[in-house]
Amino acid sequence: MGVSFDKIDGVIWYDGKLVPWADANVHILTHGLHYASCVFEGERAYGGRVFKSTAHSERLKASANILDFEIPYSVAEIDVAKQLVIDKNNLPDAYLRPIAWRGSEMMGVSAPSNTIHLAIAAWNWPSYFEPAEKLKGVRMCMAEYRRPDPATTPAMAKASGLYMICTISKHKAERAGYADAMMLDWQGRVAECTGANIFFIKDGRIHTPIADCFLAGITRATAIDLARRRGIEVIERRIMPEELDGFTECFITGTAAEVTPVCEIANWKFTPGKISEQLMADYAAEVQPKGKAAAA
Questions:
Q1: Mind telling me which Pfam families this protein's record contains (predicted)?
Q2: Dist CA 196 CA 149 (whole Å)
Q3: Which of 115, 199, 213, 272 has a CA positioned 20 to 30 A from the CA of residue 11?
Q4: Known catalytic residue at 158
Q5: Per-residue DSSP letters for 228-243?
Q6: How many CB atoms are closer than 10 A to CB 91?
């Protein structure tokens, strides 16, 4: 293990000001800790700029609204704060974690008047998977838990409580020697991975599940756009697990995973090929502040 995350050197933007990393704390009776009244984003900076910063800030605000609270900063203010964190910590290539939560004034399920806090941290975090592993494709298993019915949970928010089953599933996958786990939705259809969206390729076309019970990721949207720029058809539809036999390639997308090919999901095998490799290269070019033209 590396340095504990509470002992990293640097500063964190916390409720409008930069504070030393070690001082960015919350009280043990914080509502967000007990009742998951907490939303967050995962973002990356490349070459000194946060990729799709405004889209992430907008989603953070929207997630908070879904959880019935208002972040007391505008999208523009959040964008500026993220850039400040990158600059002050001298982290041109980094992972960012904006997070907003209900404070500690009241304890109990109902806490409508609690202060809403916002913090933004950034740290060095290389590609989610090692480059060599990425090129040959990662191995995944099937998750025990399913994405819940959106009528039972605020599925369109990037809310911390929704990741409980993801942590359980990813821990179980890693203990079994896999990199991740694929989750089905509440009706048994293919949904996503524990922290990434999933795509399949057949006959030169890309197929991906309809994102109506899980987040339609910002990286997912970028990958779809990049594919369509290449003239590759992208079909969003319901995908059943038994269809996986018919796909030749598979890849996952996310801020942490970026674009990562998959070689195995449980008993299904895939061979990372031309389309996956092309999208990996296009995404790498797209995220660079001066590299957008290379992906066209």
A1: Aminotran_4
A2: 18
A3: 115
A4: yes
A5: HHTT--EEEE---GGG
A6: 18
H/E segment holding residue 142: strand 138-142
CA distance linking residue 213 with residue 148, whole number of Å: 7
What does DSSP assign to residue 148?
A: P
Partners of residue 106 on adjacent β-strands = none
Residue 292 has what pLDDT?
A: 47
175 Cβ contact list (under 8 Å, min separation 6)? none
Q: Does residue 33 contact residue 114 with C-beta atoms inside 8 Å? A: no
Cβ proximity of 164 and 204 under 8 Å: no
Token pair of 79 as six digits: 């964008």
Q: Tokens for 149, please give them.
A: 């019915």
Q: Give the integer Cα–Cα distance in Å for 101 and 70.
A: 10
What is the per-residue pLDDT for 141?
98
Write down the pTM of the prediction: 0.94
Tens digit of each residue's pLDDT (9 = 90 or more) over 211-248: 999 999 999 999 999 999 999 999 999 999 999 999 99
> What are the structural domains of the chain?
8-124 (3.30.470.10), 131-286 (3.20.10.10)
Q: Give the whole-angstrom CA distance, residue 223 versus residue 227.
A: 6
Q: Output DSSP code: residue 59.
A: H
Q: What is the pLDDT of residues 33-44, one digit of tens each?
A: 999 999 999 999
Asked whether the beta carbons of 175 and 224 are under 8 A apart, the reply is no
- pLDDT tens digits, 93-117: 999 999 999 999 999 999 999 999 9
Under 8 Å between Cβ of 227 and 175 = no
pLDDT at 135: 81
Residue with tokens 């933004």: 120
Half-sphere exposure of 205 (CA within 13 A, CB side): 9
Of residues 158, 170, 172, 202, which has the active-site annotation? 158
Comparing C-alpha atoms, which of 67, 164, 128 is closest to residue 280?
A: 128
